[in-house]
Amino acid sequence: MIELIHKNAQHLTLRDRLKVAEIRALKMNVGWLLSVQIAFVLFVFCRDYFYVSHQMPADPALSTLLETALVVIMAILCGYVAVLRFTRVLEKQFENVMLVITLSIGVMWCIILSLLFYSDFSHLIFAISTLLMLSSLIALYPSSRHLFFATTPIWAIIVVHAMFFSKTLSLVYLAGYLVFAVLFETGRRLLRRWFVLAVTREHQNVRLANKLTLMSQQDPLTALANRRHFDRELQQAIARATTTGHPLSIILIDVDYFKKYNDRYGHQAGDACLIQLAKRFQQAVRCAQDLVGRYGGEEFIILLPDQDKYAAERVAERLKDLVFTLALPHDQSDVSPYVSLSQGIAQWQNGVDAKTLIENADQALYLAKQQGRNTVRLAP
């Protein structure tokens, strides 16, 4: 699922966007979480300085074991910080890295708290455990799986401590555990609900922005690129062609005797005709970067990056055949019993701007009309 981060965020589903938001939140919070873990390890390591009246049991082996465990765990936590801070963890690896970090945090604290059971500091286990879990909740609430891995070992220690190691297992003590468990779970659900709500609103805003952007770029009738969007794309294509030296061509298209078509069949039939023609225009182009636009009432235009005028001529002939197979009746046409097209092609030359290129295509289109329509002509 992590590869979803590499998708265009504008096209994510709500479920995918939630996944991306979870990873983004984990990236932001993991540094703080590790800092808190290091602070708690230092507190346990320096416990004798905070509680001078308490001493570890006489068994020096246990004391050495606890100190060694704390040093190793501190080194591991600092290693995590260094890896995340000074190396670039790949997106596809980050979720797995976080699973390792959260699970190891839970296991490491399980070890530390288990050793504390045998010390005079066992009365601090509940306080340390609850603070650890609250800090994990703050950092990991967007991802239930990572929160589960980080807190389950600590929850297990709390239960074991309450059942087998507590010297005074009173009703108040049990009530304290129960109250904390309820607060933890209700807090997790509340935070998760707000997280989902925030991501949902972000998703709705992105969809609305995409819709508005699309509306500003599309012709409302045919769903092709409108003139403003086409002009902008043409200027960008010319800029790229100027840099790369690759060819670029356009096809300017006019529906033959379309005014007569409207007069004969009505404007609704005329609109339906344009919609069907637009679909055929989209079928005629083969490359993803090709762009079909509606340039005027019955005028259309096609942008063909990386194609010379001869390749554009093949597209125009293919378009002519597609429209012929459509066989839309046009008994007012002087050139065909069906709707037909006149097309003018112009190839960009170095130093030619967008306006001049369109004028060249328009001259070729005019020549096609002068020479009988239903034909294709190339600009010199």
UniProtKB/TrEMBL annotation:
Residues annotated as transmembrane: 25-45, 65-84, 96-118, 124-140, 147-165, 171-191
Keyword Electron transport in annotation: no
Gene3D superfamilies in the record: 3.30.70.270
Single GO cellular component term: plasma membrane
Catalytic activity: 2 GTP = 3',3'-c-di-GMP + 2 diphosphate
Classification via SUPFAM superfamilies: Nucleotide cyclase
Superkingdom assignment: Bacteria
Keywords assigned by UniProt, alphabetized: Membrane, Transmembrane, Transmembrane helix
Pathway: Purine metabolism; 3',5'-cyclic di-GMP biosynthesis
Cofactors: Mg(2+)
Enzyme Commission numbers on file: 2.7.7.65
GO biological process: cell adhesion involved in single-species biofilm formation; negative regulation of bacterial-type flagellum-dependent cell motility
Class of enzymatic activity (EC top level): transferase
Domain GGDEF as annotated: residue spans: 246-380
Gene Ontology MF annotations: diguanylate cyclase activity
PANTHER family: DIGUANYLATE CYCLASE DGCM-RELATED, REGULATORY COMPONENTS OF SENSORY TRANSDUCTION SYSTEM
Stated name of the protein: diguanylate cyclase
Organism: Hafnia alvei
